[in-house]
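URGENT: need a sanity check before tomorrow's submission.

F., can you look over the Spore photoproduct lyase record below? I want to be sure the sequence and structure line up before it goes out.
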Amino acid sequence: MFKPKRIIFEKGSLDYQISKEIFEKFKDKPNVEIINLSTNRLKENIPGDDLFSQYREGKKTLVVGTKKSLKFQSCKPSAHYQLPLVSGCMGQCEYCYLNTQLGDKPYVKVHVNIDDILNQAEKYINERLPEITIFEGAATSDPIPVEVFTHSLEKAILFFGKNENSRFRFVTKYNDVDSLLKLEHNGHTEIRFSINTSYVIDEYENFTASRDKRIEASIKAAKAGYPMGYLIAPVFIYPNWKEEYHRLLLKLKEKLPSDLDYPVTFEVISHRYTTIAKKRILEVFPESSLPMNDEERKFKFGQFGYGKYIYGEESLGEIKQFFKREIEELFINKEIKYII
Ligand code: SF4
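Structure tokens as predicted:
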């Protein structure tokens, strides 16, 4: 659960019930600063003169506001649209794409006009009938740590549960899923858990849930009948990587019940970075030990027009072969979506 150091209420946001509840919950907490904005000058209220301090202060800031533009971003290839419930994340994963995407706005912002957002989702669904429309709830955030304040995922899951022509999916590195377990999801929401070896989590995924807590939460979600999957990303090659990823997969196999309603999905993504991301990461985490030596990587142009440094052909081949063989051997009711 997110424990903010300061909460900023944007102008007009306190008209919404969710905001009032957040305000009531924190108004008497001595170590939480409450700021009611009467202007749009949000950034001035978050300390920090450079990216390093803006990042650290921003990550401890909860902004409560509304989603003004209801034109949803597309979310190819995993979904048709992003569902803009939250942006930003309390986690401080060193490789996170949000470091580049959100830049000097790393704060966590919750959108409290959830009814407007879901009404808009319904319009998009109706435009695409009779096709099924898929919405992604974690395109620019990890929505789980703020769920306790907003119940937005709960509302979205119930909404999509009743709608036959849409699906909802999100991914998390956290474990606070208990409030979602009893909801009538009708199999329309897929919860994916981003997992990794304890070495990678301890080294690079600061302020996230431990490996075992994520696994425990994933088992709860699977037992609650949700379509459930694992995103193993980013995969790093380091001493003993095969043994440690093997132990991780073995642990999943041991814990997963054998009578799941849906096949468990696996998405495996090897570590990669862009030049812009590397520069940004080293500004925010100057001591980072992330392997980002360009000479040891292969440069590849991606589908979105910019290049990435990926593992060389031989290493990538080894990663693909390893995960394919392990997943095939260990799991029965499963689907490997991709290994890249
Ligand atoms: Fe980024 Fe996910 Fe880590 Fe949050 S938990 S910092 S969204 S990688």
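My own read: The chain has a mean pLDDT of 96. The first strand starts at residue 6 and ends at 9. If you see anything odd, call me.
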